[in-house]
User: Fold this.
Amino acid sequence: MAPSMPPPAPRPRLREWGFTVGSLPPGPRNALTDVHPIRVGHTTQIRGQGPLRIGHGPVRTGVTVILPHPGNLFQEKVPAAVHTINGFGKACGFEEIRELGHLESPIALTNTLNVWRVADALVTDALHRNPEIGVRTSSVNVVVGECNDGYLNDLQGRHVDAQAVAAALEQARDTPPGAPVAEGCVGAGTGTTCFGWKGGIGTASRVLPGDLGGWTLGALVQTNFGRPEQLIFAGMAVGTWLRPPPASGEAGPGSVMVVLATDAPLDARQLRRLCVRAQAGLARTGSLFDPGSGDFVIAFSTARRLPHRPVSLTAPAALLADEPRAMRLLFQAVVEAVEEAVLNALCTAVTLEGRDGHVCHALPIERIAQRDEASSGEG
Assistant:
């Protein structure tokens, strides 16, 4: 098998183009990794061109992994929650999170038909790090989300194997805390589309005022949703006047995976409340949550670790004493970070050709910027 080509160099992010959304300030990297000590790793697979040959390519896919902390997640779990906006998808591991309210494995994102291969690789990694699983203690719940990248990629080929997952995990574990996150046509976003344009991975963050905890909230999205006419870009109804060039095929309704993280001391119930508000951030970009899409949200907190084998029946923990006051701005942070993460995916992604000559074009941000400047001048 031919080696993968390196990921294409990303274009500038939303703020580098001169656009902003929301009023809360971003973190230092404006990324999920602004929430300490999260790490993110990608494996990107770009091989071949021309007609589809199932099992051979062209390949335009990958895997993205998120580590809530660099330690042993099975032994030191974190509070977590999930939310299904529209369930036309193959999410793995969600039911145990709903029931127990914790996360005990890395979160992996990939393509639709690779969910089970990626899940198997995560189990292998967990067994390697915890040989007692299934022997002297319980089994492990691994978590995988997906989007369908079959418009550009050999989906049936299921090219994301155990080696690809291991490479993404290794990259994440070797990454220093607070590092920037690669965006655009990388990892699980390599072959995805967004509002008919090239989508991919996007991320953003928000920081609350010091008198309200000074907490950080980050979002990472795998964008693969929306139709061209629906796109709202930084408050502008871009889809009413800007459409992609004619293509040889049409991508389906698509899906989206949203990962939220915060260092605020939230429990599973409160984290689920954050998950629900992600819908508002997606709606601000124009999403109408197509009935044929899979739209899922995962949220976790890094403020507390939950030991696999507690030493006592109870444990002291920091909790929100004034939930309404804190959650009001955390909800705002979710909406703003999710919206900006989607727009960062659109801004950084580049034009990519995939199987059967299918082309997904990069959103022409220059044209949007020029129109915005002209409108501002008229005002």
User: Anything to note?
Assistant: The longest strand covers residues 76-87. The chain has six helices and 15 strands. The mean pLDDT is 95.
